[in-house]
Write a structure and sequence with these properties.
By secondary structure, the protein is mostly helical. The protein has 10 helices and 2 strands, in the order E-E-H-H-H-H-H-H-H-H-H-H.
Length: 215
């Protein structure tokens, strides 16, 4: 285990314990305290998280966090109906947008995923992605709270199953590690360290166990 892996919840600027990764910048601190691990609901919000986690691959999350407003503007607020209609002209526009990460593969994946969500909604209605993803939530009662950063997995059986399910539906750039990061961010799993003030604020959703009913 590295020195980083052995770190536990540590005092923040106000003396209260937090996950150590949150203490590197004010942006991280705010994100940790107000967003990360809190339940995210709704197809648009979940599509945004999946897409941004895909863009984060190989980069610092802080880079994506600081570029998030530009991403939202560039991708029409991640409205799947609008993004699904993007053309090669839009791809070229996005490749010229210095406010986002200009990676053709990731840009095309975002458009592909919007189309996959549009098709899913056409079949199963609004909220289809929300219902699907929350089927794979890991109830907090079934997990031992992580004590060290090294206790946090990079993927789980649930994230592998959800990644496979999303791929069957036409989503891309959604491997088990990327999906697990989205699960952590969206509250499908509570990976705040034991003692972190955010654990008390996060209420995990149990999921309804009906993942097998989805296409």
């Amino acid at each position: 285990m590295t020195e980083w892996d052995q770190r536990q919840a540590e005092p923040g600027p106000d003396g209260r314990l937090r996950c150590p990764w949150a203490l590197g910048s004010q942006d991280y601190l705010t994100y940790h305290d107000t967003e990360w691990g809190r339940p995210v609901r709704g197809d648009v919000a979940l599509l945004e998280r999946l897409v941004l986690e895909g863009f984060q691959s190989g980069l610092s999350w802080l880079t994506i966090l600081r570029k998030r407003p530009a991403f939202r503007a560039a991708f029409a607020g991640f409205d799947p109906q609008q993004v699904a209609e993007f053309t090669e002209d839009d791809v070229q526009r996005l490749l010229g947008d210095a406010g986002i990460v200009r990676h053709r593969g990731k840009i095309e994946a975002a458009i592909t995923n919007a189309r996959a969500l549009r098709d899913l909604q056409d079949r199963d209605g609004d909220g289809a992605l929300d219902r699907l993803m929350w089927c794979y939530a890991e109830p907090d009662a079934d997990r031992v709270p992580p004590v060290l950063l090294g206790d946090l997995p990079s993927r789980t059986a649930s994230s592998a199953a959800l990644a496979a399910h999303l791929k069957r539906l036409g989503f891309t750039f959604v491997g088990p590690t990327t999906v697990y990061a989205a699960m952590q961010a969206c509250g499908l799993v509570d990976d705040h360290l034991d003692g972190c003030i955010a654990r008390a604020a996060v209420s995990s959703h149990p999921g309804d166990g009906s993942a097998q009913d989805w296409g």
